[in-house]
Each structure stands twice: as C-alpha cells, then as structure tokens.
TrEMBL record:
Residue stretches of biased makeup (Basic and acidic residues): 83-93
Gene giving rise to this polypeptide: rsrA
Transmembrane portions of the chain: none
Annotated Putative zinc-finger domain residues: 11-44
Protein name: Anti-sigma factor RsrA
Pfam families noted in UniProt: zf-HC2
InterPro entries given in the database record: Anit_sigma_mycothiol_RsrA, Znf_put
Lineage, uppermost ranks: Bacteria, Bacillati, Actinomycetota, Actinomycetes, Kitasatosporales
Tree of life domain: Bacteria
Annotated spans, Disordered: 83-104
Amino acid sequence: MSCGEPHETDCSEVLDHLYEFLDSEIPPSDRDKYKQHFRECSPCLEKYGLEEAVKKLVKRCCGHDEVPTDLRSKVLGRIDMIRSGETVPEHDVTASPRATPQES
C-alpha cells in the first residue's frame, strides 16, 4: 500500500511495524517518524485506524480473562531469563509438570 507520494519513511516500513507501533514496542525515535508518516499518508493512516479499532474491540470483548498468578509468574521469570542472557531450558518452563503413568 502506498499513496504514491514520496515519504521520508516508506509505507512498507511503517506497515511492517504497525502492530509494534500500536503496542508501543518501538523506540521513541521510530514512533516519531511513524507519526509523521501518518500525518502525510492517508492510506497508512486509514490502515492504522482500522487496526487500532480492531485492537480496541478485541480488548473490550476478550480483555476480561484473568491470567492465573502462577502462570504469570512463570512467564515473567522466563522473560527475565531471556533478557539477562541466561540459557533458557529447552523444555517449556511455563508448562505444568506432566503426570507420569503409574505402573500396575
């Protein structure tokens, strides 16, 4: 998608990172250049608006589920491990231990 006009930041770059922008997961400098792009490019602004509306709708309809405290702790622990550069176990540390069949 492109409006056909030249922009400092290409439409494809903006759209490739649209969800990161919506989730505020990009550096402030990129946020600023994407905001500028949206001011200049109505097709990208329209796409942004549509995706933002979908995200709000999903949050409103599905955002009420509570995450179990132990699962949240395990996931946050794993994120901390990855961020600190620790070796992450190959098995899923967030999974509950599996019951082993008892021999008869």
